[in-house]
Design a protein that fits this description.
Layout: H1 15-35, H2 47-54, H3 67-80, H4 100-112, H5 123-140, E1 147-151, H6 154-169, H7 174-177, E2 187-192, H8 198-205, E3 213-216, H9 226-238, E4 242-249, H10 261-271, E5 274-278, E6 303-306, H11 308-311, E7 319-323, H12 326-333, H13 362-396, E8 401-407, E9 410-415, H14 420-423, H15 426-447, E10 453-457, E11 460-466, H16 474-493
Parallel strand pairs: 2-3, 2-4, 4-5, 5-6
Antiparallel strand pairs: 1-7, 6-7, 8-9, 9-11, 10-11
Helix pairs in contact: 1-3, 4-13, 5-13, 6-12, 13-16, 15-16
Length: 494
């Protein structure tokens, strides 16, 4: 045991070396942010190239390596071979680049390393998370006395709300007796096809099966048909089913559509159904003047799922679940085993969700909200929306594009060659355009000038630009049509 008297583990780093490594890393990250606009959005390399770079087949090292060179090597690799969602021309999916203060906050959170599952293990961190939850609720106009917690992202935030809804609306003690209880009836949930696939995962993972989902028709603008919802719920109740949950969209993934939240909320109150809003993308725009007025009805929801790593520009990963009545979360998740010795008077987040061990996700959001403030955040979100609308207008007036939709900060469109009908027969035009635009997307994604994604809009394969990016400027947006048109011309010419 003498070797443990003055123990020094191989993972320790002397303070002076740690300082030098940290200063150097921060300098390199700062330079990366400074030059980001002049870099490619992505290296566009194949899995095989990256595996060769890493020496993917190498065995696990048996002995130690110097930490300084290791950190230098990893920094060089990541800054040269990544997809940079912080780039001003990254408009793929709904992923924001990180705020600089969020980046530094992640370092601080890791250094203090609290387990924000129990207040005793994370006293200040738990209180910061509690305050952050209240600020997020205030930001979107939701009741500030709600329950909530930070989670990994939109899927998990929606799962938390789903389970709270099931416990509250099942009609029997579902946590004890399960879905096959003697007095159980088939539980049914309602949403439109525009909803993110989390609803299918939830129905599967939590024992309902995806057949329990009632897919309600949506209109041409991806908004759920409230009358069709009413008819389906009535039909299910007549057949002996137990409707319990309606999921409305506050910003669909494909087109940024916002459902008729006031009407859906009123229907849920009338029929005693849980009104949940998937606002992972769009909820943060609730009080932004440029956003749809339907978002104001978020205040009436039983629960809301949000993603600060989308429109609050927090570093990944960071989601948030809000539930109107905190007791609904406690009733859905609390257990008190003998090996817990936590104070009931404090907020123990282990009682509010699925995780016991929880990282300090709130710090990066708390810091950024304090740095910028409510009004500046709302302006940045409004700017993203205005840029997307401007892009739509530019595309609409361009002879080589068909502008398809613009919702929140998502614009969808497709490239249409001016001589299309001279080269392609009428019955082959739509399949050809789908193939052409799919190839354009592949070429652009690997090319590095910009980064887009895709959506199906009115049955057409569309290119999709989603602007949740505080670095994007008017100049960036106005450059996009020519980038796409140039690529489309080359591919169409063969």
């Amino acid at each position: 045991m003498d070797d443990l008297r003055h123990r020094k583990a191989p993972v320790q780093i002397d303070p002076e070396e740690f300082r030098a490594m940290g200063h150097k890393l921060v300098d390199r990250i700062a330079s990366h942010f400074e030059t980001l606009a002049s870099q490619r959005v992505t290296s566009g390399e194949s899995p095989a190239v990256l595996q060769k770079l890493l020496g993917a087949g190498d065995p696990l090292p048996h002995s130690e390596n110097l930490p300084g060179p290791l950190l230098d090597e990893a920094t060089t690799m990541l800054l040269a071979h990544s997809l940079f969602n912080a780039h001003p021309r990254f408009w793929g999916y709904i992923t924001a680049g990180p705020t600089p203060i969020g980046v530094l906050s992640e370092l601080l959170a890791a250094a203090t390393n609290p387990n924000v599952g129990a207040w005793k293990l994370s006293p200040l961190a738990s209180e910061i998370e509690k305050q952050t939850i209240r600020w997020i609720a205030e930001f979107i106009g939701y009741p500030v006395d709600c329950g909530g917690l930070m989670v990994s992202g939109g899927n998990m935030a929606n799962f938390i709300c789903f389970l709270a809804a099931r416990r509250a609306r099942a009609g029997w003690e579902v946590r004890q007796a399960g879905l096959a209880a003697k007095d159980a009836r088939p539980l049914r949930m309602y949403t439109s096809a525009a909803t993110h696939t989390w609803i299918q995962k939830a129905a599967d993972l939590f024992g309902h099966g995806t057949d329990a989902i009632r897919w309600i028709p949506a209109d041409r603008n991806d908004r759920l048909d409230v009358e069709a919802l009413r008819r389906q719920v009535q039909s299910d109740r007549s057949d002996g089913n137990q409707p319990f949950l309606v999921v409305a969209n506050a910003g669909s993934v494909g087109t940024g559509a916002v459902d008729a939240l006031p009407e859906i909320g009123a229907f849920c109150r009338e029929t005693s159904l849980w009104f949940h809003v998937d606002g992972a993308y769009g909820a943060f725009a609730a009080l932004v003047p440029e956003a749809p007025s339907d978002l104001a009805a978020l205040k009436d929801a039983d629960s809301v799922a949000l993603d600060p790593h989308k429109w609050l520009y927090a570093p990944l990963e960071c989601g948030c679940a809000l539930v109107r009545r905190p007791d609904d979360l406690l009733k859905a998740f609390t257990f008190h085993p003998t090996y817990y010795h936590f104070e009931d008077s404090a907020t123990n987040y282990v009682d509010f969700g699925m995780q016991n061990s929880r990282g300090f996700r709130a710090l990066k959001v708390w810091m950024a909200l304090r740095q910028a403030g409510r009004d500046n955040y709302r302006k940045m979100i409004g700017d993203d929306i205005r840029l997307a609308k401007h892009l739509y207008g530019v595309l609409e007036s361009h002879p080589e594009f068909e502008a398809l939709s613009c919702g929140l900060s998502i614009t969808t469109f497709r490239y249409v060659p001016p001589d299309l009908h001279e080269r392609v027969s009428v019955d082959q035009a739509e399949p050809y355009l789908d193939r052409l635009n799919s190839e354009i997307l592949t070429r652009i994604e690997s090319g590095g000038e910009a980064f887009l994604s895709n959506a199906m809009v009115h049955g057409k394969f569309a290119l999709r630009a989603c602007i949740v990016n505080f670095r994007t400027s008017l100049e960036d947006v106005e450059a996009l049509p020519e980038i796409v048109a140039r690529t489309g011309r080359q591919l169409h010419a063969g």
